[in-house]
UniProtKB/TrEMBL annotation:
Domain DHHA1: 237-311
GO molecular function (one): nucleic acid binding
TM ranges: none
InterPro entries tied to this protein: DDH_dom, DHH_sf, DHHA1_dom, Oligoribo/pAp-PDE_c-di-AMP_PDE
Domain of life: Bacteria
SUPFAM superfamilies: DHH phosphoesterases (SSF64182)
Domain DDH: start-end pairs: 17-154
Organism whose genome encodes this protein: Dellaglioa algida DSM 15638
Protein name: Phosphoesterase, DHH family protein
Length: 317
C-alpha cells in the first residue's frame, strides 16, 4: 500500500486526531497544520480534530490554536507536521498518543514516528498536504478555508516563489488552490505588510549588518533592542531575507538573543550549503535555509567564523 493510503487509513481509524507543528512557527507550519486539520474535519465531521501549540500573534490571521486537556491524547492519533527533529516539536505531549505520524519536507535525519512520510522535494509541508489529498483520490475534502491556509503556507516557505525549492509541481498545486474561493490578493498583501516595529528593525539590520571578507554576513539582534521596539523573536522573522538582497552577500546569519542570553540563529544562503553547520549547533534544516542555536557569544562567534569559511570555499557549483 502506498504511504498516502496508509496515512488515510490511520486517519479513518482514529476518532481523535491531534496535529502538532514546530516551535516558533512560520506560515508553513501554521498553514500546513491548520490546513490539514480543516481538511480532516470536512472529510470526517464525526471526528474530533485539534491543532495545538503556543499562540503566534503574528500568524493568528492564518489560524488559531486549540488548548486541550492531557486526557484527549488517550487513544488519539498524533500527527507532527513540518518538524524535522524532535527537540523542535511544539508541546511535548505529542509522545503520549496511541499512534504517531510524521509528515515533513525537511531532510529526514531524525526519524521518529510509527509512520513517516518525508518528501524533501516538496517546497513546503503545505504542498505536501495537497499531495496527500491528490494521491488518495477523493478520500479527503478541501474547503475554501483549508485552501487559503495552505496557499499562505506555500507562499511563505517559497519566499513568494523566489526560492529554489519552487518547482513546476509547486505552481500546479498553487493553481489548484487558487481555484477555491478565497482572496490570494489579501493573503499576498497581508504577507507583504510590515509593522512600524519591523520597519525600524529593517533599518537596524542594514545599519548593523557585518559583511565578512568572504561575503558572509551577520547581524545580532539583542533582546533589549527587540523589546525597545516592541518586537519579539517571532516578529523578527520578517527581516531574515533582507541581507540576501545585497549582491555581495552569499550567505548570512541572524542572531536573535533570547531572555536567557542564548541566541536563536537563522541561517540562509544563496549558494553555500549551510544545513551541516546548523546541525553542528543544535539545529538543522534545508541546504539553503536552516536554524540553529548558540548558547552564548563565544558560540555565535564560532558560527560566524564557520559561515565565513563556507563562503570562502564556495565554488559556485
Amino acid at each position: 500500500m502506498k504511504i498516502e493510503l496508509e496515512i488515510l487509513k490511520k486517519i479513518k481509524q482514529f476518532d481523535t486526531i491531534i496535529i502538532h507543528r514546530h516551535q516558533s512557527p512560520d506560515p508553513d507550519a501554521i498553514g500546513s497544520q491548520s490546513g490539514l486539520a480543516a481538511i480532516i474535519r470536512a472529510s470526517f465531521p464525526e471526528k474530533k480534530v485539534y491543532q495545538v501549540g503556543a499562540p503566534s500573534a503574528g500568524l493568528a490571521w492564518i489560524s488559531d490554536q486549540d488548548e486541550i486537556a492531557d486526557d484527549l491524547y488517550n487513544d488519539a492519533l498524533v500527527i507532527v507536521i513540518d518538524t524535522a527533529n524532535r527537540p523542535r516539536i511544539e508541546d511535548d505531549r505529542y509522545t503520549t498518543g496511541a499512534y504517531l505520524i510524521k509528515l515533513d519536507h525537511h531532510p529526514n535525519e531524525d526519524v521518529y514516528g510509527d509512520l513517516v512520510w518525508v518528501k524533501t522535494g516538496a517546497s513546503s509541508s503545505s504542498e505536501l498536504v495537497m499531495d496527500l489529498v491528490d494521491q488518495v483520490e477523493g478520500g479527503l475534502t478541501v474547503t475554501d478555508d483549508a485552501a487559503r491556509m495552505l496557499y499562505a503556507g506555500i507562499v511563505g516557505d517559497t519566499g513568494r516563489f523566489m526560492y529554489s525549492a519552487t518547482t513546476a509541481h509547486t505552481m500546479q498545486v498553487v493553481a489548484e488552490l487558487m481555484a477555491y474561493h478565497f482572496s490570494t490578493t489579501k493573503i499576498n498583501q497581508k504577507m507583504d505588510n510590515i509593522t512600524a516595529g519591523v520597519a525600524k528593525l529593517s533599518g537596524y539590520v542594514y545599519d548593523n549588518l557585518v559583511i565578512t571578507e568572504h561575503k558572509a554576513a551577520y547581524v545580532v539582534l539583542t533582546h533589549d533592542y527587540l523589546d525597545s521596539i516592541e518586537l519579539g523573536d517571532a516578529g523578527s522573522s520578517q527581516i531574515v531575507p533582507l541581507p540576501g538582497k545585497i549582491i555581495e552577500v552569499q550567505c548570512w546569519a541572524i542572531f536573535v538573543q533570547q531572555k536567557d542570553g542564548s541566541y536563536r540563529v537563522r541561517l540562509r544562503s544563496k549558494g553555500p550549503i549551510i544545513n551541516q553547520l546548523a546541525k553542528e549547533h543544535d539545529g538543522g534544516g534545508h541546504p539553503m535555509a536552516s536554524g540553529a542555536r548558540a548558547k552564548d557569544q563565544a558560540e555565535y562567534e564560532e558560527i560566524v567564523k564557520s559561515l565565513d569559511d563556507l563562503a570562502r570555499t564556495y565554488t559556485g557549483e
